[in-house]
Design goal:
This protein is of the alpha+beta class and 103 residues long. It has helices at 3-6, 12-15, 17-29, 68-72, 76-102; strands at 9-11, 37-44, 47-54, 60-66. The protein has one domain. 51% of the residues lie in helices and 25% in strands. The longest helix has 27 residues, at 76-102.
Amino acid sequence: MSKKDELEEKLLRFALPALYKRLVDIFSMLNLHPHDVQATVIKEESGFVVTLRFAADFSQSISTHINFEQANNPDEEVTLFFEEAAEKCKTRLISDYYKMIKL
């Protein structure tokens, strides 16, 4: 495997379906749609870097590193990361909405 392949950013939905399902479940609890966030993953030697981008133009981002076991069986740490990200996303979307209606 070349260095380029190792650093290739992939959509979480296709690269790690179990992790994506956990993301969707948590975001839906806050009435957020999966399309409100752009989730990507980069494979590294020790695991994956998961990056979530959100806001009207996906300008805000939050990232974390997870190991291979967490990728297949999301644990409490992963759940907490997604919950924090969902709260930030919701807050930003509400803020963007109020800015839009003031125009």
